[in-house]
Amino acid sequence: MASALLLLIQKIVREGSLKLTLSSGETHILGDGSDDPVAIRFIDQEAEDAVARDPTLKLGEMYMQGRFVMEQGDIYDFLSVVKKNTTNEIFDFRMAMLLMGRVVLQQLKSRLPINRNKHNVAHHYDLSAKLFDLFLDEDWQYSCAYFEPHGISLDEAQLAKKRHIAAKLLIGSGQRILEIGSGWGGMGMYLAEAAEGIDFTGITLSEEQLKVSRGRAAKRGLSERVRFELQDYRYMGGKKFDRIVSVGMFEHVGIGNYGKFFHKVSELLDNNGVMVLHTIARPKPSFATNAFIEKYIFPGGYIPSVGEVTPPLEKAGLLIKDIEILPMHYAYTLRHWRNRFVARKAEAVALYDERFFRMWEFYLAGSEMGFRWDDLFILQVQIAKNQFAVPDNRNYIAEQEAKLKEFEARRAPLEKVVF
I want to staple 37 with a disulfide (CB 3.0 to 4.6 A). Which of 17, 154, 194, 372 is the partner? Predict the structure, then answer.
């Protein structure tokens, strides 16, 4: 009798070229022979059964444990074969109920009055800084780069991202700037140096990022006007800011907290202020995060649709002044990150172990696949409180970017972080 795993994969793979070796040694060739061949093998029957029951979670777990092995091609190649062939028809009643249960659980968790923000952030961002140094650009930008023009390097694309966001912020002298989710400080230092007299505050819930950010700012002599704080945005109060920026943080807010987020933004933003929100988004609601990502990578995270972002923003009394969709740019970014990470496998294994390396390889490959095949994209929303806060046309963005390029040409080179 055919195994449940074989029946599932046979149902999925109609195009491409996949060689499947079961734990019994039995081999099957699937697909129509198109594309480069991909070969996989399962080490034991229990691993096969686990993936057949719950492929969304268990495929990644079996890969982490070395019980699902790539024999030809890499994990991205296999995930691409699956994704190119996947339709809703493969999901039976049992899988549908499993997915529904996860949706209900995540929706409940996102609305519970229990603050797990710091715990969730620490799970990912308080990993060794040496890990992120293996694959990020020179400025440690852990968010989507902007490949404009196409074909530029990762370092150039991350610089272009900062420039594009700064242009939309209309950065100017003497502004008070808040960054919600300040990472390792790169965006803050860029903005602070881009104009005279900038007073910058960056907040994070990661103690590791806080330490690195403060050290980097001190080395550049910016500590007097660039402050990084261990602070939850929900408890910010006091002064208002001329500019607010948030890059790659909104994905961690949780769908049940969007209203609170934008009401806090409205409270903190000056009446003539401008905010730019940069986040991963999707074409329609999914209601839950991928099970593997939720458990191992970003607990508590959720990728919104545009339609889930705009209603709570508008209810908070804020105006949308500009929306830009950046498709494929994160796929390019993730390809760079994954290639760099895999090239330094020995160092990653030395930091943690083989299991950790495979977990992150699977995460990076699966994320890249999502941006290539699941229509995920980057959403940049420019926000204000009054219609006169930004010009009435988009020409100013290119004009601001040209000025920022002049600043970049004069700017002192970034120093490499030393551990």
Answer: 17
Q: Which of 38-47, 56-65, 83-92 has the lowest mean pLDDT?
A: 83-92
Scanning 238-385, the segments in alpha helix (DSSP H) are 258-268, 291-292, 306-315, 329-343, 345-351, 354-373
- Shared fold status for 4-89 and 117-410: no
In the chain, where are the structural domains located? 4-89, 117-410
Half-sphere exposure of 346 (CA within 13 A, CB side): 0
Judged by phi (left if over 0) then psi (alpha if -120 to 50, else beta), residue 233 lies in alpha
CATH assignment of 4-89? 3.30.1050
pLDDT tens-digit readout, 2-39: 689 999 999 899 999 999 999 999 999 999 998 899 99
* Residues 384, 318: Cα–Cα separation, whole Å: 6
Indicate whether this model's pTM tops 0.70.
yes
Nearest to 397 by CA among 226, 148, 141, 136: 148
pLDDT tens, position by position, 245-295: 999 999 999 888 999 999 999 999 999 999 999 999 999 987 667 889 888
